[in-house]
């Protein structure tokens, strides 16, 4: 089973904090995109057998959707728009499905089995369609998320996901994804906590350590020379005001840290969004610095000895 959109955002959808509405023209464009990118796949239905069946992405998708929800039929409203939902084929389900969040689930399940070299183009097409129709949704790493700022989603959050996968920091990727899901579900305390964990974990991963207090962790990061040492004043300010910003917000905002005292304050949504966005910026920057440093440490054989 997959951790699809309707499951990740179940509480938020139930409480109507998230509302999904996708007009017919958008559904039609996305369906055509799916048809254009459809390709042959091989599926091993019996895990005890080495035999695989030849099928394609769209042919396999109904089976995956039904298995995900434990249903026998896909349901959609009639083409004339009158009457209750009835059994439908995949096209009818995508164009007239009776529960809009399932449309996003289907996109994520479709993405799962796609050839890797096609995933990026598919994702770009989905995001372009959403943007052109002024819909506040985007796809990142095959997952649909609400988008508050197109720039942040595309330029920072998506790139952070890609870089985390590139350096294989799966634990950080999971914490970062949890923070984003917490935002969607209205769990703003959880969002700040997971954003902070993601930042701390990326530093530990880069430094190759397992345990360290936050202050010590940032000091070791500075000592590692991953951060450029332009001058001490700037470096100190960078550590205190940038690297530790998520940590400071978590510890000082009532309701966001380890203890809440006698008064329980609700964590503001804006603060949680800021924490997640800042953590994405920090993660993106640190991984880029880490990769740059690793590249420079690999000296080609013909450059080991200077010939003069």
Summary keywords:
Four Helix Bundle (Hemerythrin (Met), subunit A); globular; two-stranded antiparallel ribbon; 14 helices; 2 domains; 308 residues; mainly alpha; disordered C terminus
Structure write-up:
By secondary structure, the chain is mainly alpha-helical. It has two domains: 1-147, no CATH class; 148-297, Nucleotidyltransferases  domain 2 (Four Helix Bundle (Hemerythrin (Met), subunit A), Up-down Bundle), CATH 1.20.120. The chain is built from 14 helices and six strands. The protein has helices spanning 5-8, 10-14, 24-37, 57-69, 90-96, 101-112, 116-132, 150-166, 170-185, 188-207, 214-223, 232-243, 245-252, 269-297, and strands at 40-43, 53-56, 74-76, 86-88, 137-140, 143-146. The chain has a two-stranded antiparallel sheet with strand order 1-2. Strands 3-4 form a two-stranded antiparallel sheet. Strands 5-6 form a two-stranded antiparallel sheet. Helix 10 (188-207) packs antiparallel against helix 13. The radius of gyration is 23 Å and the shape is globular. Residues 149-154, 260-264 and 298-308 have low confidence and may be disordered.
